[in-house]
Amino acid sequence: MKSYLLAFIPVFVAVDALGTAPVLLSLMQGMSAEERSRVIRQSVWTAIGIALGFLWIGKWLFRLLGITVADFLIAGGSILFILAIEELLRGGGSATMPKSIGVVPLATPLIVGPGVLTTVLISADSFGLWPTVASIVINVVIAGLLFQGAERLVRLTGRAGAEAASKIFSLLLAAIGVMMVRRGIVVTIAAYHM
């Protein structure tokens, strides 16, 4: 049970459903309740498919390209850190979105972006395949449920409260990125000293 909890936490932080809720509202302004529900369902199924697909082929792809877990830790941690810093510094605003916003940008990269993909591969190594699969499904479903109630959530916390929560999650994400880079460097140094 502990491995399921340990797999759940980093994916929960990486998905950042609470922080994505205000973005979702701005993307879906002017949509009917039925259209919003369709977009949210589409985003949940797409995000689960992308994350699970990457979980199964990611390591094979690494072997094919000669990439080590340490390489991915350093690259993924760097990307995670940069994305977190961008989110921390971004002032908001939205561009015109295509009709398929449930797939892009909602499912990917907002729900399942490089941070989540990096996290699930590391999680599978650290905590096992099934705890990681469960953490993906549970976290994306939680995100979908939060998105369904996004308007109520933002009314409850206020837009400023939701944005503050997003910044806190971004800071945690930056720290996780730094930790991943550090672990990758330690693994690389250890490999050369053997």
Describe the structure.
There is one protein chain. The protein is an all-alpha fold and 194 residues long. It has a single domain, classed as Growth Hormone, Chain: A (Up-down Bundle), CATH 1.20.1250. The protein is 86% helix and 0% strand. Helix 1 packs antiparallel against helix 6 and helix 1 packs across helix 7. The relative contact order is 0.23. About 3% of the residues have low confidence.
Summarize the structure.
With 194 residues, the protein is mainly alpha-helical.
Write the layout of secondary structure elements.
Elements: H1 2-15, H2 17-27, H3 33-65, H4 69-89, H5 102-111, H6 114-127, H7 129-148, H8 150-192
Helix pairs in contact: 1-6, 1-7, 2-7, 2-8, 3-5, 3-6, 3-7, 4-6, 4-8, 6-7
What do we call the CATH topology?
Answer: Growth Hormone, Chain: A
Question: How many angstroms separate the termini?
Answer: 34 Å
What portion of residues is helical?
over 70%
* Major sheet size, sense and barrel closure: none
CATH class call: Mainly Alpha
- Our count of helices gives 8
SSE succession? HHHHHHHH
Overall SS class: mainly alpha
Residues in β-strands, percent: under 5%
State mean pLDDT (0 to 100 scale).
Answer: 82
| Uncertain stretches | 93-97
Q: Measured on Cα atoms, how large is the radius of gyration?
A: 17 Å
Number of strands: 0
